[in-house]
Write a structure and sequence with these properties.
Elements lengths: L1 H17 L7 H4 L7 H19 L3 H14 L4 H13 L3 H14 L6 H8 L4 H17 L4 H13 L3 H15 L3 H13 L3 H14 L4 H13 L4 H11 L7 H13 L4 H14 L4 H13 L3 H13 L3 H18 L2
Helix pairs in contact: 1-5, 3-4, 4-5, 5-6, 7-8, 8-9, 9-10, 10-11, 11-12, 12-13, 13-14, 14-15, 15-16, 15-17, 16-17, 17-18, 17-19, 18-19
C-alpha cells in the first residue's frame, strides 16, 4: 500500500512541476459556472486543500478530497485526470481509463498524455489507433510541443509505422534543433528498417558535428564492418576510436589486419598485432594476423613460427583461412 501511495505522489508531483496541476489556469479548466455559489466555494476549498496534501505526500486524505471534488463537479477536466491517476496507482486500470478519457475529451490539449499511454499499452489494435488519432490532433494544434510529438513518434514506432516516425523526427528537429538525440533516433529507426546505408549516413552526419562522440564512432565502425566497407574507411574508423579503447584487442587486431592487407603502415600493424598476441597468446585469429604481417614484411621464418602456432590453436571457423596463409608462407619459405 505504501508503495502504491508513493507512486501516486511521484506522478502527481511530476504533473504539478509540469504545470498540469490543481489550480493551473483554474478559471479555464474548472467549469464552476454550473455550480451554486456555495458549491463553488466548497469545490475551490477542497481543490486547493487536496493540492496541499499531495504536496505534503499525505495522499489518502487527498484522495478523499479529490473524490469529493468530483462529486461536486464531474465535468472538471483536472479532477477527472486525477481520479484516473489515483485509480491507476491503485492498480485499477478498468476504473482509471474512463476518467482519463473524460479528462481528454474535456481538455485534449492539456490531458492527452496519460490517456494516450493507457491506450497504447492496452494491446488492443483499435485502442492504439485511437491513441494515435488523438495524438495527431493534439500535435496539429500544438506544433511546437516537443512532448506530444515525442509520444506520437513512440506510438508510430510501437505500431511499426516507421515512415511517419521519421516525419515526426523532422518536426522534432524543427523544435529542438538537430542534436545527438535526433541522430540517435534516426540511426535506430534505420537499423530497425534494415536500411544500413542510410544508418551510415546518419552516423557520419552526426560525427561531422561531434567527431569525438565515442558511441557514434562505435556505431560507425559496427556498420562499416557489417557492410564490408573498403579497408581505407575501416582503418579511419578504427584509428578514430582506438585512443578511447587502448585495450580493445579485437579492435587492434582488425586494424592491424586491414593495415596489412591494404598496403598500409606495416610497422604500426606489427606493433598493434604484437600487443594482441601478448595479451592472448593462444588466440588463433590474432596469431594468424601477426603471421600474415610477418609475411608481408618479408620475415618468412617468423611468419612460419606464428602460423604454426595459429594452426595449433585454430578454431573451426578460422581454420580454412589460416591453412591458406600457411600454404602461402610455406611456399615463400621453401623457395
Amino acid at each position: 500500500m505504501l508503495r502504491k501511495i508513493r507512486q501516486i505522489v511521484i506522478v502527481v508531483l511530476l504533473l504539478l512541476c509540469a504545470g498540469v496541476a490543481f489550480g493551473a489556469n483554474l478559471a479555464k479548466t474548472n467549469k464552476l459556472d454550473t455550480l451554486t455559489v456555495e458549491e463553488q466555494q466548497q469545490f475551490l476549498y477542497y481543490f486547493y486543500e487536496a493540492q496541499r496534501l499531495i504536496e505534503k505526500e499525505d495522499v489518502e486524505p487527498a484522495w478523499e478530497l479529490v473524490q469529493f471534488c468530483y462529486a461536486l463537479n464531474p465535468n472538471d477536466a483536472t479532477i477527472n485526470n486525477y481520479m484516473g491517476i489515483f485509480y491507476d496507482a491503485f492498480n485499477q486500470p478498468q476504473n482509471a481509463l474512463p476518467y482519463l478519457q473524460r479528462a481528454f475529451e474535456l481538455q485534449p490539449n492539456e490531458y492527452w498524455y496519460q490517456y494516450a499511454v493507457y491506450l497504447l499499452q492496452s494491446g488492443n489494435k483499435q485502442s492504439e489507433k485511437i491513441a494515435i488519432q488523438n495524438l495527431q490532433k493534439v500535435a496539429k494544434n500544438n506544433p511546437k510541443n516537443e512532448d506530444v510529438h515525442t509520444l506520437l513518434q513512440k506510438a508510430y514506432i510501437h505500431v511499426k509505422d516507421y515512415k511517419n516516425a521519421f516525419l515526426i523526427q523532422d518536426q522534432l528537429d524543427s523544435i529542438t534543433g538537430y542534436n545527438a538525440a535526433s541522430a540517435m533516433q534516426r540511426y535506430r529507426l534505420n537499423i530497425v528498417m534494415n536500411n544500413l546505408k542510410q544508418a551510415i549516413y546518419e552516423v557520419e552526419r552526426y560525427l561531422e558535428e561531434d567527431p569525438s562522440d565515442v558511441q557514434f564512432q562505435a556505431f560507425r565502425l559496427k556498420l562499416y564492418e557489417k557492410t564490408n566497407q573498403p579497408s581505407k574507411k575501416l582503418i579511419d574508423a578504427y584509428m578514430a576510436i582506438l585512443p578511447y579503447e587502448p585495450h580493445n584487442w579485437v579492435l587492434m587486431n582488425n586494424l592491424a589486419w586491414h593495415l596489412c592487407i591494404s598496403g598500409g603502415d606495416l610497422t604500426l600493424a606489427e606493433k598493434l598485432s604484437h600487443a594482441t598476441i601478448m595479451a592472448e597468446p593462444s588466440n588463433s585469429i590474432y596469431l594468424d594476423t601477426y603471421a600474415w604481417i610477418m609475411y608481408h614484411m618479408g620475415l618468412y621464418q617468423d611468419a612460419s613460427f606464428y602460423i604454426h602456432r595459429a594452426l595449433e590453436y585454430a578454431v573451426p571457423e578460422a581454420k580454412k583461412e589460416i591453412e591458406s596463409h600457411y600454404k602461402a608462407i610455406m611456399k615463400k619459405l621453401n623457395r
